Amino acid sequence: MNHERAAMLGLLAEARKKREELRAKCEWLAQSLRQGLNTALTNVEDLAMDTVWQQMTELSGSWAELVAVRARIERLERELGG
User: What is the pTM of this model?
Assistant: First the structure.
């Protein structure tokens, strides 16, 4: 196995790990948002919108990062032939 292929395999493994971390983070944030916006549990006027806004901003950034990592994985997989 040449060094370039080994390096690409290492990058692929790192990207896959990052993808799983980002998926878990996005899932957690989405669940937290869902609970924070559940008006069956909290009156609308009592919603913690500062927290919800912060979580939504974080979810948006994490989701964008996840999309970029997925594209990187697809590119590496194509380059590696599988």
Answer: 0.87
